[in-house]
Amino acid sequence: MHALDETVRILGDLIAFPTVSVDSNLELIRYVSSHLDALGADIEIFEDDSGTKANLFATLGPRADGGIVLSGHSDVVPVVGQDWRTDPFEMGERDGKLFGRGTCDMKGFIAAALAVAPQFARAELDRPIHFSLTYDEETGCLGGQALIKDLMRLGIRPAVVIIGEPTKMRIIEGHKGCYEYTVDFRGLGGHGSLPDQGVNAVEYAVRYVSRLMTLREELKSHAPADNRFEPPWTTVSIGRLSGGIAHNVIPNACTLDWEMRPIRKADGDMVKSAMNRYVDDELLPAMRAVSPAADIVTTIIGEVDGLEPMRESEAVRIVSELTGVNGTDVVSFGTEAGLFQQLGISTVVCGPGSIEQAHKPDEYVSIDQLSQAVGMLQRLVQRLGV
Ligand SMILES: [Zn+2]
Questions:
Q1: Beta strands, E only, the chain
Q2: Are 157 and 97 in contact (CB under 8 A)?
Protein backbone atom coordinates (compact mmCIF):
# COMPACT_ATOMS: atom_id res chain seq x y z
CA MET A 1 0.00 0.00 0.00
CA HIS A 2 1.22 3.50 -0.79
CA ALA A 3 2.62 5.24 2.30
CA LEU A 4 0.19 8.15 1.99
CA ASP A 5 -2.86 5.85 1.87
CA GLU A 6 -1.43 3.98 4.81
CA THR A 7 -0.95 7.28 6.67
CA VAL A 8 -4.61 8.17 6.17
CA ARG A 9 -5.73 4.72 7.30
CA ILE A 10 -3.57 4.84 10.45
CA LEU A 11 -4.64 8.40 11.20
CA GLY A 12 -8.27 7.26 11.16
CA ASP A 13 -7.40 4.60 13.73
CA LEU A 14 -5.49 7.07 15.92
CA ILE A 15 -8.32 9.62 15.85
CA ALA A 16 -10.72 6.93 17.09
CA PHE A 17 -8.77 6.70 20.36
CA PRO A 18 -10.22 9.62 22.36
CA THR A 19 -6.95 10.45 24.09
CA VAL A 20 -8.03 13.68 25.73
CA SER A 21 -5.31 14.58 28.24
CA VAL A 22 -7.38 13.73 31.34
CA ASP A 23 -8.14 10.24 29.99
CA SER A 24 -6.03 7.16 29.44
CA ASN A 25 -3.85 6.83 26.34
CA LEU A 26 -3.05 3.16 26.90
CA GLU A 27 -5.15 1.79 24.03
CA LEU A 28 -3.38 4.08 21.58
CA ILE A 29 0.00 3.11 23.03
CA ARG A 30 -0.89 -0.58 22.63
CA TYR A 31 -1.90 0.02 19.01
CA VAL A 32 1.36 1.81 18.19
CA SER A 33 3.35 -0.76 20.11
CA SER A 34 1.93 -3.70 18.19
CA HIS A 35 2.44 -1.88 14.87
CA LEU A 36 6.13 -1.31 15.65
CA ASP A 37 6.62 -4.67 17.32
CA ALA A 38 5.57 -6.39 14.09
CA LEU A 39 8.44 -4.53 12.39
CA GLY A 40 10.97 -5.80 14.91
CA ALA A 41 11.39 -2.58 16.87
CA ASP A 42 12.79 -2.47 20.39
CA ILE A 43 9.98 -0.98 22.43
CA GLU A 44 10.07 0.63 25.86
CA ILE A 45 6.79 1.57 27.51
CA PHE A 46 6.95 3.77 30.58
CA GLU A 47 3.74 4.02 32.61
CA ASP A 48 2.95 6.99 34.82
CA ASP A 49 2.28 6.58 38.55
CA SER A 50 -1.45 6.14 38.01
CA GLY A 51 -0.92 3.32 35.52
CA THR A 52 -3.48 4.90 33.17
CA LYS A 53 -1.04 6.66 30.85
CA ALA A 54 2.23 5.74 29.24
CA ASN A 55 5.06 7.05 27.09
CA LEU A 56 6.44 4.87 24.34
CA PHE A 57 9.97 4.93 22.98
CA ALA A 58 10.81 2.53 20.16
CA THR A 59 13.93 1.92 18.11
CA LEU A 60 14.59 0.53 14.64
CA GLY A 61 18.05 0.11 13.17
CA PRO A 62 21.31 -0.23 15.07
CA ARG A 63 21.10 -0.12 18.87
CA ALA A 64 23.50 2.78 19.22
CA ASP A 65 23.80 6.41 20.25
CA GLY A 66 23.33 9.22 17.78
CA GLY A 67 19.88 8.27 16.50
CA ILE A 68 17.11 10.43 15.14
CA VAL A 69 13.88 10.72 17.11
CA LEU A 70 10.46 11.25 15.52
CA SER A 71 8.51 12.70 18.39
CA GLY A 72 4.84 13.34 18.99
CA HIS A 73 2.41 13.68 21.86
CA SER A 74 -0.46 11.22 22.03
CA ASP A 75 -2.91 13.44 23.91
CA VAL A 76 -5.41 15.88 22.46
CA VAL A 77 -7.31 18.81 23.91
CA PRO A 78 -10.97 18.36 24.93
CA VAL A 79 -13.93 18.90 22.60
CA VAL A 80 -16.35 19.85 25.38
CA GLY A 81 -18.32 22.98 24.55
CA GLN A 82 -17.08 23.03 20.94
CA ASP A 83 -19.48 22.97 18.03
CA TRP A 84 -18.29 20.18 15.69
CA ARG A 85 -20.00 19.41 12.38
CA THR A 86 -19.06 15.74 12.73
CA ASP A 87 -18.00 13.31 15.45
CA PRO A 88 -14.54 14.57 16.49
CA PHE A 89 -13.38 11.02 17.21
CA GLU A 90 -14.40 9.56 13.87
CA MET A 91 -12.21 10.90 11.09
CA GLY A 92 -14.02 12.30 8.09
CA GLU A 93 -12.73 13.51 4.72
CA ARG A 94 -13.97 16.56 2.82
CA ASP A 95 -12.29 18.63 0.09
CA GLY A 96 -8.88 17.05 0.56
CA LYS A 97 -8.99 17.62 4.31
CA LEU A 98 -9.17 15.09 7.11
CA PHE A 99 -11.29 16.23 10.05
CA GLY A 100 -11.11 15.03 13.63
CA ARG A 101 -9.70 15.95 17.02
CA GLY A 102 -5.93 15.56 16.82
CA THR A 103 -5.67 15.36 13.01
CA CYS A 104 -3.26 18.29 12.97
CA ASP A 105 -2.23 18.44 16.65
CA MET A 106 -0.60 16.02 16.26
CA LYS A 107 -1.63 12.56 15.24
CA GLY A 108 -1.09 13.34 11.54
CA PHE A 109 2.66 13.33 12.01
CA ILE A 110 2.49 10.20 14.16
CA ALA A 111 0.46 8.43 11.47
CA ALA A 112 2.99 9.42 8.81
CA ALA A 113 5.86 8.13 10.96
CA LEU A 114 4.07 4.81 11.54
CA ALA A 115 3.21 4.49 7.85
CA VAL A 116 6.85 4.97 6.83
CA ALA A 117 8.12 2.75 9.67
CA PRO A 118 8.12 -0.43 7.50
CA GLN A 119 10.52 1.33 5.11
CA PHE A 120 12.81 2.20 8.02
CA ALA A 121 12.57 -1.44 9.13
CA ARG A 122 13.51 -2.76 5.68
CA ALA A 123 16.39 -0.35 5.14
CA GLU A 124 19.89 -1.05 6.36
CA LEU A 125 20.11 2.03 8.62
CA ASP A 126 23.45 3.55 9.54
CA ARG A 127 22.01 5.12 12.68
CA PRO A 128 18.95 4.36 14.81
CA ILE A 129 15.52 5.82 14.17
CA HIS A 130 13.39 6.26 17.28
CA PHE A 131 9.66 6.74 17.66
CA SER A 132 8.69 8.73 20.73
CA LEU A 133 5.14 9.15 21.99
CA THR A 134 4.27 11.05 25.14
CA TYR A 135 1.19 11.71 27.28
CA ASP A 136 -0.02 14.96 28.87
CA GLU A 137 1.79 17.37 26.55
CA GLU A 138 -1.25 19.63 26.42
CA THR A 139 -1.34 19.89 30.20
CA GLY A 140 2.26 20.97 30.77
CA CYS A 141 4.54 18.44 29.05
CA LEU A 142 4.27 16.05 32.00
CA GLY A 143 4.87 12.93 29.91
CA GLY A 144 7.81 14.54 28.12
CA GLN A 145 9.44 15.41 31.43
CA ALA A 146 9.07 11.81 32.59
CA LEU A 147 10.37 10.45 29.29
CA ILE A 148 13.52 12.57 29.46
CA LYS A 149 14.28 11.11 32.90
CA ASP A 150 13.76 7.56 31.62
CA LEU A 151 16.01 8.12 28.59
CA MET A 152 18.75 9.46 30.86
CA ARG A 153 18.33 6.53 33.25
CA LEU A 154 18.60 4.03 30.40
CA GLY A 155 21.54 5.87 28.82
CA ILE A 156 19.73 6.35 25.49
CA ARG A 157 21.44 9.20 23.67
CA PRO A 158 19.88 10.29 20.41
CA ALA A 159 21.51 13.13 18.47
CA VAL A 160 18.51 14.70 16.74
CA VAL A 161 14.82 15.15 17.52
CA ILE A 162 12.15 16.12 14.99
CA ILE A 163 8.96 17.17 16.75
CA GLY A 164 6.04 16.93 14.34
CA GLU A 165 3.83 19.67 15.78
CA PRO A 166 1.84 21.44 13.06
CA THR A 167 4.12 24.01 11.41
CA LYS A 168 2.85 23.60 7.81
CA MET A 169 6.15 21.77 7.33
CA ARG A 170 8.11 24.96 8.01
CA ILE A 171 11.28 24.47 10.02
CA ILE A 172 10.90 25.92 13.48
CA GLU A 173 14.11 26.38 15.41
CA GLY A 174 12.81 28.39 18.33
CA HIS A 175 9.92 29.13 20.64
CA LYS A 176 9.66 30.74 24.03
CA GLY A 177 9.29 28.76 27.21
CA CYS A 178 6.22 28.99 29.42
CA TYR A 179 6.58 29.06 33.18
CA GLU A 180 3.50 29.40 35.40
CA TYR A 181 3.40 29.97 39.14
CA THR A 182 0.90 30.40 41.94
CA VAL A 183 2.17 32.26 44.99
CA ASP A 184 0.27 32.09 48.29
CA PHE A 185 0.90 34.88 50.78
CA ARG A 186 -0.03 33.90 54.33
CA GLY A 187 -0.18 36.84 56.72
CA LEU A 188 -1.94 37.74 59.93
CA GLY A 189 -5.44 39.24 59.94
CA GLY A 190 -6.52 42.15 62.09
CA HIS A 191 -8.39 45.42 62.29
CA GLY A 192 -7.65 47.93 59.58
CA SER A 193 -7.03 50.63 62.15
CA LEU A 194 -3.98 48.77 63.49
CA PRO A 195 -1.94 47.92 60.36
CA ASP A 196 1.31 47.35 62.28
CA GLN A 197 -0.23 44.56 64.33
CA GLY A 198 -1.16 42.45 61.33
CA VAL A 199 0.70 41.07 58.35
CA ASN A 200 -1.16 42.34 55.33
CA ALA A 201 -1.01 39.53 52.78
CA VAL A 202 -2.33 41.71 49.95
CA GLU A 203 0.26 44.41 50.58
CA TYR A 204 3.09 41.88 50.52
CA ALA A 205 1.68 40.41 47.33
CA VAL A 206 1.67 43.89 45.79
CA ARG A 207 5.33 44.36 46.73
CA TYR A 208 6.07 41.01 45.10
CA VAL A 209 4.19 42.03 41.95
CA SER A 210 5.99 45.35 41.91
CA ARG A 211 9.38 43.59 42.02
CA LEU A 212 8.28 41.38 39.12
CA MET A 213 7.31 44.48 37.13
CA THR A 214 10.78 45.96 37.71
CA LEU A 215 12.40 42.75 36.48
CA ARG A 216 10.11 42.77 33.46
CA GLU A 217 11.52 46.14 32.39
CA GLU A 218 15.11 44.94 32.99
CA LEU A 219 14.48 41.90 30.78
CA LYS A 220 13.84 44.15 27.78
CA SER A 221 17.44 45.31 27.82
CA HIS A 222 18.77 41.75 28.33
CA ALA A 223 17.39 40.44 25.05
CA PRO A 224 19.99 39.20 22.60
CA ALA A 225 20.15 41.26 19.41
CA ASP A 226 18.48 39.98 16.22
CA ASN A 227 16.23 37.45 17.84
CA ARG A 228 12.94 36.94 16.03
CA PHE A 229 10.60 36.37 18.95
CA GLU A 230 7.55 38.58 19.31
CA PRO A 231 8.11 40.57 21.47
CA PRO A 232 11.86 39.95 21.26
CA TRP A 233 12.45 39.63 25.00
CA THR A 234 11.37 37.50 27.94
CA THR A 235 7.98 38.60 29.24
CA VAL A 236 6.36 38.47 32.67
CA SER A 237 2.64 38.88 33.18
CA ILE A 238 0.31 38.94 36.17
CA GLY A 239 -2.75 36.81 35.57
CA ARG A 240 -4.70 36.97 38.81
CA LEU A 241 -4.35 38.60 42.21
CA SER A 242 -6.98 37.88 44.81
CA GLY A 243 -7.27 38.46 48.52
CA GLY A 244 -9.05 40.43 51.21
CA ILE A 245 -12.68 40.79 52.28
CA ALA A 246 -13.46 44.40 53.26
CA HIS A 247 -12.09 47.95 53.59
CA ASN A 248 -11.36 47.71 57.29
CA VAL A 249 -9.98 44.18 57.62
CA ILE A 250 -6.30 43.31 57.25
CA PRO A 251 -6.27 40.38 54.81
CA ASN A 252 -4.51 37.29 56.10
CA ALA A 253 -4.26 35.61 52.70
CA CYS A 254 -3.65 36.56 49.10
CA THR A 255 -3.03 34.47 46.00
CA LEU A 256 -1.11 35.52 42.92
CA ASP A 257 -1.01 33.72 39.56
CA TRP A 258 1.72 34.85 37.20
CA GLU A 259 3.55 33.62 34.14
CA MET A 260 6.85 34.15 32.41
CA ARG A 261 7.77 33.40 28.77
CA PRO A 262 11.55 33.13 28.68
CA ILE A 263 13.33 33.40 25.35
CA ARG A 264 16.19 31.53 27.00
CA LYS A 265 16.56 29.50 30.13
CA ALA A 266 19.07 31.93 31.63
CA ASP A 267 16.41 34.66 31.81
CA GLY A 268 14.03 32.34 33.62
CA ASP A 269 16.74 31.39 36.10
CA MET A 270 17.59 35.05 36.66
CA VAL A 271 13.99 36.01 37.49
CA LYS A 272 13.47 33.00 39.73
CA SER A 273 16.62 33.60 41.76
CA ALA A 274 15.95 37.34 42.01
CA MET A 275 12.45 36.65 43.34
CA ASN A 276 13.71 33.99 45.77
CA ARG A 277 16.28 36.43 47.13
CA TYR A 278 13.66 39.17 47.46
CA VAL A 279 11.34 36.83 49.38
CA ASP A 280 14.07 35.44 51.66
CA ASP A 281 15.96 38.66 52.32
CA GLU A 282 13.19 41.25 52.48
CA LEU A 283 9.58 40.07 52.47
CA LEU A 284 9.71 37.08 54.81
CA PRO A 285 11.88 38.75 57.50
CA ALA A 286 9.49 41.71 57.58
CA MET A 287 6.41 39.48 57.74
CA ARG A 288 7.86 37.19 60.40
CA ALA A 289 8.95 40.10 62.59
CA VAL A 290 5.21 40.47 63.28
CA SER A 291 4.02 36.89 62.89
CA PRO A 292 6.49 33.97 62.85
CA ALA A 293 3.87 31.82 61.11
CA ALA A 294 3.69 34.14 58.10
CA ASP A 295 4.82 32.58 54.86
CA ILE A 296 5.12 32.88 51.08
CA VAL A 297 4.63 29.59 49.28
CA THR A 298 5.31 29.25 45.57
CA THR A 299 3.76 26.40 43.58
CA ILE A 300 5.19 25.63 40.17
CA ILE A 301 2.24 25.02 37.87
CA GLY A 302 4.51 24.27 34.95
CA GLU A 303 7.97 25.13 33.68
CA VAL A 304 8.09 24.25 30.01
CA ASP A 305 11.41 25.29 28.57
CA GLY A 306 11.62 27.06 25.27
CA LEU A 307 13.54 25.98 22.21
CA GLU A 308 16.56 28.23 21.80
CA PRO A 309 17.78 28.77 18.24
CA MET A 310 21.34 27.48 17.90
CA ARG A 311 24.02 28.82 15.62
CA GLU A 312 24.86 25.32 14.42
CA SER A 313 22.04 22.78 14.42
CA GLU A 314 22.27 19.30 12.98
CA ALA A 315 18.48 19.00 13.27
CA VAL A 316 17.91 22.11 11.15
CA ARG A 317 20.49 20.96 8.61
CA ILE A 318 18.93 17.51 8.22
CA VAL A 319 15.33 18.74 8.00
CA SER A 320 16.34 21.43 5.49
CA GLU A 321 17.86 18.77 3.30
CA LEU A 322 14.84 16.51 3.65
CA THR A 323 12.22 19.17 2.96
CA GLY A 324 14.15 21.41 0.60
CA VAL A 325 13.04 24.30 2.78
CA ASN A 326 15.70 26.92 3.29
CA GLY A 327 15.42 29.23 6.23
CA THR A 328 13.88 28.74 9.63
CA ASP A 329 11.32 30.44 11.76
CA VAL A 330 10.25 30.84 15.36
CA VAL A 331 6.73 30.37 16.70
CA SER A 332 4.78 31.53 19.71
CA PHE A 333 3.36 28.17 20.81
CA GLY A 334 5.21 25.81 23.12
CA THR A 335 6.28 22.22 22.49
CA GLU A 336 8.35 19.48 24.10
CA ALA A 337 11.37 20.63 22.09
CA GLY A 338 13.00 22.47 24.99
CA LEU A 339 13.00 19.30 27.08
CA PHE A 340 15.08 17.46 24.49
CA GLN A 341 17.31 20.45 23.88
CA GLN A 342 18.12 20.65 27.60
CA LEU A 343 19.56 17.14 27.23
CA GLY A 344 21.92 18.46 24.60
CA ILE A 345 19.97 16.95 21.69
CA SER A 346 19.71 19.00 18.50
CA THR A 347 15.97 19.66 18.15
CA VAL A 348 13.66 21.11 15.56
CA VAL A 349 9.89 21.39 15.17
CA CYS A 350 8.46 20.49 11.76
CA GLY A 351 5.18 18.79 11.01
CA PRO A 352 2.06 18.73 8.86
CA GLY A 353 -0.97 20.96 9.37
CA SER A 354 -1.39 24.43 10.74
CA ILE A 355 -1.52 25.52 14.36
CA GLU A 356 -4.46 27.69 13.22
CA GLN A 357 -6.57 24.54 13.14
CA ALA A 358 -5.31 23.12 16.42
CA HIS A 359 -7.52 23.07 19.52
CA LYS A 360 -10.52 24.28 17.47
CA PRO A 361 -13.78 22.65 16.40
CA ASP A 362 -13.56 20.94 13.00
CA GLU A 363 -9.79 20.56 13.40
CA TYR A 364 -8.28 19.21 10.19
CA VAL A 365 -5.09 18.40 8.38
CA SER A 366 -4.91 18.54 4.59
CA ILE A 367 -3.91 15.42 2.69
CA ASP A 368 -1.37 17.57 0.86
CA GLN A 369 0.32 18.41 4.17
CA LEU A 370 0.37 14.73 5.16
CA SER A 371 1.87 13.92 1.78
CA GLN A 372 4.69 16.40 2.42
CA ALA A 373 5.35 14.82 5.82
CA VAL A 374 5.45 11.35 4.26
CA GLY A 375 7.88 12.66 1.63
CA MET A 376 10.16 14.10 4.30
CA LEU A 377 10.21 10.79 6.19
CA GLN A 378 10.80 8.73 3.05
CA ARG A 379 13.78 10.92 2.21
CA LEU A 380 15.00 10.30 5.75
CA VAL A 381 14.87 6.55 5.05
CA GLN A 382 17.06 7.09 1.99
CA ARG A 383 19.42 9.33 3.90
CA LEU A 384 19.91 6.87 6.75
CA GLY A 385 20.14 3.83 4.50
CA VAL A 386 23.64 2.58 3.80
ZN1 LIG B 1 0.56 19.74 20.06
A1: 42-47, 54-60, 68-73, 92-94, 97-99, 129-134, 160-163, 172-175, 178-186, 190-191, 235-243, 249-250, 253-261, 295-304, 329-331, 346-349, 364-366
A2: no
Residues forming the active site: 75, 137
One pLDDT digit (tens) per residue for the chain, 386 residues:
699 999 999 999 999 999 999 999 999 999 999 999 999 999 999 999 999 999 999 999 999 999 999 999 999 999 999 999 999 999 999 999 999 999 999 999 999 999 999 999 999 999 999 999 999 998 888 899 999 999 999 999 999 999 999 999 999 999 999 999 999 999 999 999 999 999 999 999 999 999 999 999 999 998 888 888 989 999 999 999 999 999 999 999 999 999 999 999 999 999 999 999 999 999 999 999 999 999 999 999 989 899 999 989 999 999 999 999 989 999 988 899 999 999 999 999 999 999 999 999 999 999 999 999 999 999 999 999 87
- CA–centroid distance, residue 237 to ligand 1 (Å): 23
- Whole-number Å distance, alpha carbon 292 to ligand 1 midpoint, is 45
What distance in angstroms lies between residue 62's CA and the mean position of ligand 1's atoms?
A: 29
